Amino acid sequence: MSALTIHKGLAGVVVDRTAVSMVNPDTNSLTYRGYPVQDLAANCTFEEVAYLLWHGELPTPAQLAEQNAAERAHRALPHDLVLTLLALPESAHPMDTLRTAVSILGANDPDEDDNSPEANQAKALRLFAALPSVVALTQRRRRGLLPLAPREDLGYAENFLYLSLGSIPEPEIVRAFETSLVLYAEHSFNASTFTSRVVTSTLSDLYSAVTAAIGALKGPLHGGANEAVMATFEEIGDPSSAEAWLKTALAEKRKIMGFGHRVYKNGDSRVPTMRRALQTVAELRDGHRLLDLYESLARAMYAEKGLHPNLDYPAGPAYHLMGFDTPVFTPIFVASRITGWTAHISEQLAANSLIRPSSVYSGPAQRALSR
Ligand SMILES: CC(=O)SCCNC(=O)CCNC(=O)[C@H](O)C(C)(C)COP(=O)(O)OP(=O)(O)OC[C@H]1O[C@@H](n2cnc3c(N)ncnc32)[C@H](O)[C@@H]1OP(=O)(O)O
Ligand SMILES: O=C([O-])CC(=O)C(=O)O
């Protein structure tokens, strides 16, 4: 590689190795630690997938029981944190609340700067346990409701839904939600994961890396797209308007959220699994009109630009039909991706090198200061 070759957006640049996951656009596959993600989604709980991402192997029953006990014991948020989060303006985006919560948890952790594998694994588990309570707090606050106490008798996905929506939905909805958590958990060197690795590479702490990653995920070119998809559906209104709406939007050079991908050019490996989950939710929640909109826009986008949906495209409407408010969609993504981020933070620390790329200078030539 010539020193003067610029790779805008680092497209195609290989910066390191990873053993956490493999995205293969040629075979349209995604594996976590070697296991196809669609097989994990069909056969495993999210807690098992978290264990796999962190430790490299699926847990034995005893290992899972131990992790579950620790996770359930850390679901409740410290009272002071709840008060601080409720003191934020009601207009704050739930992603901002989440970012603030992680930052406060870090400031309160006496082991914040302990970067040993054991300390960081304990922090990862505590964040994994606490994030659904923060997401649920933001969801309930939007509806004028106070937070609920977490339930230790429920699995991760069930407790998450109970805390957010106030009741446990049908098992098919719980399964669809859990599928989304498994699919969102990890995706190699995406922008937010890379952000977490950049922060970690300076030997900063895990909370700082996660806080920065939340900021990176918020943008609509990354995780924020799952919220933007709902705005698009609302703008289109009727499925019969999708084609005309798209032609106008493309003529105006707008980016259509939920379509395209930096790595996948022939479709996102996770979309078929999430599309089936969306179908299940739509059948239970009278979502046929939203499904028609989904299909009409996807057909038109392929015809106009040859672009396929990414995971955010089916996840957005699925969360909507489950009963979440749109601004809570990307925070749900955070609660899942915390597993992938923290696996990458550990991997970065285990073989660290400061991440500091180069640039080509394009400002004024050196000049004399005349004073
Ligand atoms: C979980 C995730 O984070 S998945 C990604 C979620 N993000 C989105 O859905 C946002 C919408 N999509 C996009 O903006 C892009 O597809 C990205 C950012 C995801 C990937 O971008 P890149 O790899 O840089 O692709 P790039 O922007 O070069 O696209 C290639 C061409 O397709 C066009 N294109 C790509 N995606 C879209 C889109 N969603 N809408 C309209 N045009 C698009 C680009 O304008 C470009 O056209 P051009 O060659 O005429 O200039
Ligand atoms: O890989 C990417 O660039 C974005 C993505 O799909 C993800 O983070 O899940």
UniProtKB/TrEMBL annotation:
Q: Which organism is it from?
A: Amycolatopsis sulphurea
Name the GO cellular-component terms. Answer: cytosol
Listed GO biological process terms: carbohydrate metabolic process; tricarboxylic acid cycle
Entry keyword set: Transferase, Tricarboxylic acid cycle
Q: Which family does it belong to?
A: Belongs to the citrate synthase family.
Q: What is this protein called in UniProt? A: Citrate synthase
Catalytic-site annotation from UniProt: H261, D312
Q: Which SUPFAM superfamilies match?
A: Citrate synthase
Key word Transferase present in the record?
yes
Task: Indicate whether Transferase appears among the record's keywords.
Answer: yes
Q: InterPro entries per the record?
A: 2-MeCitrate/Citrate_synth_II, Citrate_synth-like_lrg_a-sub, Citrate_synth-like_sm_a-sub, Citrate_synthase, Citrate_synthase_AS, Citrate_synthase_bac-typ, Citrate_synthase_sf
Task: Write down the chemical reaction(s) this protein catalyses.
Answer: oxaloacetate + acetyl-CoA + H2O = citrate + CoA + H(+)
NCBIfam families the record matches: cit_synth_II, PRK14033.1
What GO MF terms are annotated? citrate synthase activity
Pathway the protein takes part in = Carbohydrate metabolism; tricarboxylic acid cycle
Pfam families in UniProt: Citrate_synt
